[in-house]
Design brief:
Elements (H helix, E strand, L loop, with lengths): L5 H7 L7 E2 L14 E3 L19 E4 L1 H6 L1 H9 L15 H15 L2 H12 L7 H13 L2 E5 L2 E6 L1 H7 L1 E3 L10 E6 L4 H9 L3 E6 L14 E11 L5 E13 L4 H16 L7 E6 L2 E11 L5 E15 L24 E7 L11 E7 L5 E2 L4 E3 L5 E3 L3 E2 L4 E6 L14 E6 L5 E7 L8 E2 L8
């Protein structure tokens, strides 16, 4: 066992890892039978208000495997033990401490954790028994501490919370009903993101790789992204909307694998084997910087707790991937719905499949003359078109199916969307927007106009 391949060995030993598939350049899945179908779609705009990703990041996850694998089930129980806001006090009641100990007991018997302890003992000179290693894992991952980064103290910090759960940085507006804006710190877990996305607590805005070429979306084992997260009160009202300009996480590895990778990096940091808090590693022909930050003491020195851990994807060897279509420049629409043709209603999220023209938009000619729609089109927020045709008679309402013939054709996003009608000279005749669409929701855009 050598220090140059321990991360690959831990990765390969992960018996509870989920297989992952991305899309090909033509939009098909590389392996539709994979446990995770990862849909990275388009590059993010860079702004919290603009969502270019029309679909969720996780198109499919094998929930049966997630529910029935003990280390995942135990891990998921830990995710709701922390306050979202970083300034709020944290406590560890007895029940939550038992959940921590149960999780550690489960992962101690797994191959990734056993490999990590063996490497730490044999290559780094520690002499940790299983019981000592158990105690160390609980301390560096779960014990609450105060972090003194750049002279600012953060109380009630926890390695597990920061890395896997994430922390919200925002102010509380007393008596103000407007949602406040803030940022997300940490949050480097694919399991947490999937569960939050499934329950509409986070929104994927697109990928955010700072790489030359198109390597990022072709590596299924990592995601670098932009995202927003909604913080709600007990009544379900959004009180804060948080933004992460650039974040990321491995996709597919089990909780024990990620704990093992980070714990090895932690000990390598202690023994000064990292360069600037980073370990340059290769896993499955992909090169990463593994970033491991330890806590900061009052005098500025490194502490004994884990502060953060995440991968930075650098490159992938092997065949050159197919082209990835970059999104067009973000269009700034002129919202109006009072021209000769208006958008009356739309069904963005039909029950069942969205394919086969089951999505639709209704248009109405509000003039006293017939309008020939030949050469007209409708476009979504990515300027993907749906051609129109036929004659719209005076005061006629007509329903137009959204065919989704290709990936570059118009789609009605289920998360939020934009519908623009353009005439044959590409002049915008009508533009409307809608919010998240639940299954079967029909949006009405002009209460003064009746819809058939």
């Amino acid at each position: 066992m050598s220090e140059t391949n321990i991360y690959q060995q831990i990765w390969e030993s992960d018996e509870n890892q989920f297989s992952v598939s991305t899309r090909t350049s033509s939009g098909e899945w590389e392996d539709e039978t994979a446990d995770i179908l990862l849909d990275e779609q388009v590059k993010a705009s860079g702004q919290r208000e603009i969502d270019l990703a029309t679909r969720p990041l996780f198109y499919k996850v094998n929930e049966d495997k997630l529910d029935k694998t003990p280390t995942y089930s135990s891990f998921i129980k830990l995710l709701d033990n922390y306050a979202i806001r970083s300034l709020d006090p944290e406590f560890t009641p007895e029940e939550e401490e038992h959940e921590q100990l149960d999780f550690i007991s489960l992962i101690l018997s797994t191959k990734p954790i056993q490999l990590a302890r063996k490497y730490i003992n044999e290559e780094l000179g520690e002499t940790l028994s299983e019981q000592q290693f158990r105690h160390k894992l609980q301390r560096i991952w779960f014990e609450l501490y105060t972090n003194y980064f750049k002279g600012k103290s953060t109380h009630f910090a926890s390695g597990f919370e920061h890395v896997f759960v994430g922390e919200g940085k925002y102010n509380i507006r007393s008596g103000d009903k407007r949602e406040t804006l803030g940022t997300i710190s940490g949050y480097h877990s694919w399991v947490k993101f999937y569960l939050d996305e499934k329950n509409q607590r986070v929104n994927f805005l697109g990928y955010k790789y700072d790489l030359r070429g198109n390597q990022g979306p072709n590596n299924p084992n990592v995601v670098t992204l932009q995202m927003t997260q909604n913080v709600t009160d007990m009544g379900g009202n959004v009180i804060a909307k948080l933004f992460k300009e650039k974040g990321g996480f491995f996709v597919g590895p089990s909780p024990e694998c990620e704990i093992a990778l980070a714990t090895v990096a932690y000990y390598e940091s202690v023994y000064r084997k990292l360069r600037g808090d980073k370990a340059r590693i290769t896993i499955n022909d992909a090169t990463y910087d593994l970033v491991l930050y330890r806590s900061t003491n009052p005098n500025g020195s490194r502490g004994e707790f884990i502060r953060s851990f995440f991968p930075i994807f650098l490159s992938k060897d092997g065949p050159t991937p197919g082209p990835i279509i970059e999104p067009p420049p973000v269009r700034k629409p002129n919202f109006n719905n009072d021209g000769p043709v208006v958008v009356v209603a739309a069904l963005p999220n039909p029950e069942g499949s969205d394919q086969g023209g089951r999505e639709w938009v209704k248009l109405k000619n509000v003039t006293s003359e017939a309008i020939d729609l030949t050469g007209w089109d409708m476009v979504d927020k990515l300027d993907r078109p749906q051609l129109l045709s036929g004659i719209l008679q005076p005061n006629e309402v007509k329903q137009f199916p959204i065919t989704r013939l290709t990936q570059s054709s118009m789609h009605l996003s289920n998360k939020s969307g934009l519908i623009t009608v353009r005439d044959r000279s590409s002049k915008e005749i009508a533009t409307v927007t809608y919010s998240r669409a639940r299954s079967g929701d029909i949006f009405q855009f002009n209460s003064d106009i009746e819809s058939d």
